[in-house]
Design goal:
By secondary structure, the protein is α/β, with parallel strands linked by helices. Helix content is about 30%, strand content about 15%. It has 6 helices and 5 strands. The chain has a 5-stranded mixed β-sheet with strand order 2-1-3-5-4. Strand 4 (about 145-150) and strand 5 (about 155-160) form a beta hairpin. Helix 3 (about 60-65) crosses helix 6 and helix 4 (about 105-120) crosses helix 5 (about 130-140).
Length: about 220
């Protein structure tokens, strides 16, 4: 989706209003180390065309502090993530002002689409950023932040906290620590647990470019 912001600057109220229900393309390629999955695009992200773009969202600083990128990237540098073996998608496609505007049915349907996407692109890890949304999408009420037993569409599964500035349960330091734990597992090639559970939709040193499969950005 092209940016609706004129001149590439800060989105206006009109820009944000025009971004409602827009779909933000994934940053994705085959064979990534980690596919990071947000809940859904916010209006700021949909207006600018960049994931986690709203000022105050802690995704980009947490990603850097967690050891995934050698410096803190700007949202408009999101395509550089592919070179670090990373990608971004969302559980629900349409943009809203707040994640709680999504319905349970939308999250459940988004979970099915996510599984198909993971099976198609075959990342080593899927990291979902938002434990409550994951519980709703997959009816997995006992899931907590951290590594999960079993897999998801052939990938290993990790739940990260929602990096939104509205999530008061996690400071930036706490978020960065959770990202760093995932980074360590990726580096070590650690298994999060036994393959007993497969979720179905229903009620550190700075890294260099990854050596996994050759990558190209999907739109």
């Amino acid at each position: 989706m092209a940016s609706t912001v004129h001149g590439g600057g800060r989105p206006s109220r009109a820009d944000l209003a025009a971004a409602v229900d827009k779909v933000l393309p994934d940053v994705i390629a085959p064979g990534l180390d980690v596919l990071l999955c947000g809940i859904n695009p916010g209006l700021w992200s949909a207006a600018t065309g960049h994931h986690f773009a709203r000022p105050g969202n802690r995704f980009w600083p947490a990603l850097h502090r967690g050891g995934f990128t050698p410096r803190q990237l700007r949202p408009d540098e999101q395509d550089l993530l592919i070179g670090y073996g990373l990608g971004i998608t969302n559980l629900a496609a349409r943009a809203t002002a707040r994640a709680d505007e999504l319905t349970r049915d939308e999250l459940t349907a988004g979970g099915a689409v996510l599984r198909e996407k993971v099976e198609r692109f075959a990342p080593a890890w899927l990291a979902v950023l938002g434990v409550t949304a994951f519980r709703t999408a997959f009816g997995a009420q006992r899931v907590t932040v951290g590594p999960q037993d079993g897999g998801f569409g052939g990938a290993r599964l990790w739940i990260l906290p929602n990096p939104s500035g509205l999530n008061a349960h996690f400071t930036l330091d706490a978020l960065a620590a959770e990202f760093a734990a995932l980074r360590q597992a990726v580096t070590d090639g650690a298994e999060p647990g036994s393959p007993a559970v497969a979720y179905e939709a229903g009620p550190s040193s700075p890294p260099g470019p990854s050596n996994r499969a050759a990558r190209s950005r999907s739109s």
